[in-house]
Design brief:
five-stranded antiparallel β-sheet; Sig_transdc_resp-reg_receiver; 236 residues; DNA binding; phosphoprotein; five-stranded parallel β-sheet; 34% helix
């Protein structure tokens, strides 16, 4: 299912765009969920990381589209963003937030159809597994290829990604089950490691390609090394 968010402070435009999306779904057979938001702050505070694509108006009264995109990118690095504007001058500025494109209003069905066809084609070619977590700051979509390791932290979990560190309130056992078969292995009761990032192992220490050193507990070493050997064997 494709999940689309529309963020625009004009009710009439939101309704118009929803009707065009329904037309596209009827013609193509795509299952599409649409979530409307009427200002940037609303989208930021209620952001749902299951969203695949955002139609985002640049000119809004409370929080404009560019500031909204900046905040969304901090929570979700991969979600598609298509800016909506009545002024062409905003287009190039929007690209620094890795916008998929921008559309000059009013939007016509032919343009919407082409954009959705292109977005679906690209997203299916680049389907990356991800994990959704939430904490007091909000919800986050974490792509597994950017997740180096997870460690216990003050009775919670700390996700170490390429971009930042994110607190998660799930248990290690729960997350380990969710990541089963995804190239992660438990090296220690407090560490779950992405095997892709491992550079080498010496005795009870793991060296990551980043230079970070993580521990291996003696009870878990045998199982961990078996999983690492199998993973490296598959990679060769």
């Amino acid at each position: 299912m494709l999940h689309i968010a529309i963020c625009d402070d004009e009710q009439s435009f939101v309704d118009h765009l929803k009707s065009l999306i329904r037309q596209y779904a009827a013609e193509t057979g795509e299952e599409i969920k649409v979530s409307p938001y009427y200002d940037g702050l609303d989208l930021i505070e209620k952001y749902d990381p299951t969203v695949d694509l955002i139609f985002l108006d640049i000119q809004m009264k409370l929080v404009d589209g560019l500031r909204t995109a900046e905040k969304i990118r901090q929570m979700d690095e991969k979600v598609g963003i298509i800016f909506l504007t009545t002024l062409t001058q905003y287009g190039l500025e929007g690209y620094k937030y890795r916008a998929a494109d921008y559309i000059i209003k009013p939007i016509r069905y032919v343009r919407l159809r082409d954009e959705l066809n292109r977005f679906l084609s690209m997203s299916r070619q680049d389907a990356s597994p991800s994990l959704i977590i939430k904490n007091d700051s909000g919800k986050y979509k974490i792509f597994l290829k950017s997740l180096r390791y997870i460690e216990t932290f003050n009775r919670n979990l700390l996700f170490h990604t390429e971009q930042e560190k994110i607190i998660c309130y799930k248990s290690m056992k729960e997350v380990e089950q969710e990541l089963k078969g995804q190239g992660f292995a438990r090296s220690h009761s407090s560490y779950l490691v992405n095997l892709f990032y491992i550079k080498g192992v010496q005795k009870l220490e793991i060296t990551l390609v980043t230079g970070e050193i993580l521990p291996i507990s003696q009870p878990k070493r045998k199982q961990f090394m078996e999983e690492l050997t199998e993973y490296w064997g598959d990679m060769i």
